[in-house]
Design a protein that fits this description.
The protein has about 160 residues and is α+β, with helices and mostly antiparallel strands. The protein has one domain: OB fold (Dihydrolipoamide Acetyltransferase, E2P). A five-stranded mixed beta barrel has the order 2-3-4-6-5. Strand 3 and strand 4 form a beta hairpin.
Length: about 160
């Protein structure tokens, strides 16, 4: 049996690895075109000022949807904001966690009654395979409001 094919395969793999830039950026969706980032803390401090506006946010990827990659949680200076996309529109890679990410989209408020909010929390726990006990939650009667970014694009530094 000839050793030429395995040797050629190893050579091609080595060449591909050599020309792949380390720390390359991965662009997702429409990418990010807004030049200036709005600090996450500023959005969360006065969300009504930003509802409906397209913004760019930047931060470390704190968490990524483990099921379909349909959201990523970005944080900066102790504040975090979820970037949510429709399933399949953008798939945030699981290995983005821990990397710097810039994301662009429209700030939105999601209003929920108590039962819907508990259902959402249950869904999050199920995604991560974590136990969920609604009776252990110390929640008021609601309504509940989540602020998030409806993502249109992102750039992940590294993976």
């Amino acid at each position: 049996m000839s050793t030429a094919r395995p040797a050629l395969a190893v050579y091609c793999l080595a060449l591909a690895l050599a020309i792949t830039p380390l720390g390359a950026e991965t662009s997702l969706g429409e990418g990010v075109e807004i030049e200036e980032a709005t600090p996450i803390g500023r959005i969360l401090a006065d969300p009504d000022e930003y509802i409906g506006q397209a913004v760019r946010i930047e931060g470390g990827a704190l968490d990524v949807c483990p099921m379909k990659g349909c959201w990523i949680e970005l944080g900066d200076e102790g504040e975090s904001l979820r970037v949510k996309v429709d399933d399949g529109v953008i798939v945030f890679p699981a290995d983005a966690k821990g990397h710097l990410v810039a994301a662009q989209g429209v700030v939105e408020a999601v209003e929920m009654e108590r039962d819907a909010y508990i259902g959402w929390l249950r869904h999050l726990a199920e995604e991560k395979g974590e136990p969920f006990d609604a009776d252990a939650l110390e929640l008021g009667p609601g309504p509940f409001r989540r602020i998030q970014l409806r993502g249109t694009g992102a750039v992940v530094d590294g993976p």
